[in-house]
Amino acid sequence: MAPAVPLALLAVGLGLGLALPSCDYPTHLWCSSREIAVACQAESHCANLAHPTAAPVQLSLYYESLCPACRGFLVQQLFTTWLLLPVEVLNITLVPYGNAQERNVSGKWQFQCQHGSEECLGNMLQACLMHEAQNFTTYFPVIFCMESGSSATKNLKACLQLYAPQLDAGRITACAQGELGAALMHRNAQLTDALDPPHQYVPWVVINGKHTDELQAQAQSSLLRLVCQLYQGDKPEACEDTESPKPGAVCRR
Fold first, then answer.
1. Is residue 129 part of a domain?
2. Which domain holds residue 115?
């Protein structure tokens, strides 16, 4: 949808005592892009073009599927913040692995997870879901549903039916039980092991490529407030009334 045309700009287009710029575009398109606004000498009238689009805040979450602190952060902070903010403000990467350990046995990767084999299954199901769906807006609501339920492994089918009925639960389960799931989990192990500084607990939050104790504490207490502070573009409406910070919990290694 084209941006609304300011009254002053309409006055220009209608020739109400103002100089009409020489351009070949109708007035309702003058604010549709910076190039057209420049050609029509209308930049000062286009509020939507006042500032170049800012880069989104980059957030990577390293977590494990059954850690209570991870589930709380993902459900109460991350998903809520994602829902409230426009897509151009926040870019999220999810890495389910956490405090797990891997070993190569006869050429095959095996994993030991902090909260047992069910957590390994949950991690793999979510990794396979991401691989199958590809699109973040498709798989994140499903992961939210899985993590907010009583079981993060047994509600995949129900969550898919609710949020992504186009995806096949059988394919995702087969992935988690096969070589592809192990390969995806190995990749997440490599990403987690490459963290600098090394992670000491989960959830482990990396923002714009950095992890500090201060950023972690701010993310866990009020992620929306932190993202709003870091975003360099025009602040969206959701940033006008951010909640008071609350302390966060972790699952230590």
1. yes
2. 57-233
- The total of structural domains in the chain comes to 1
The domain that holds 165 is classified in CATH as 3.40.30.10
Residue 241 located in a structural domain? no
DSSP H stretches of helix in the chain: 7-13, 34-39, 68-72, 79-84, 117-133, 136-148, 156-163, 169-176, 179-193, 213-230
Are 64 and 251 spatial neighbours (Cβ–Cβ below 8 Å)?
yes
CA–CA separation, 245 and 223 (whole Å): 9
DSSP for 48-79 reads GGSSPPPPPEEEEEEE-TT-HHHHHIIIIIIH
Torsions phi, psi of 158, nearest 5? -65, -40
Angstrom distance (rounded) from CA 253 to CA 80: 27
The two structure tokens encoding residue 221? 């207490």
In a domain, 17, yes or no: no
Model pTM above 0.85: no
Q: pLDDT tens across 184-205, in order?
A: 999 999 999 999 999 999 999 9
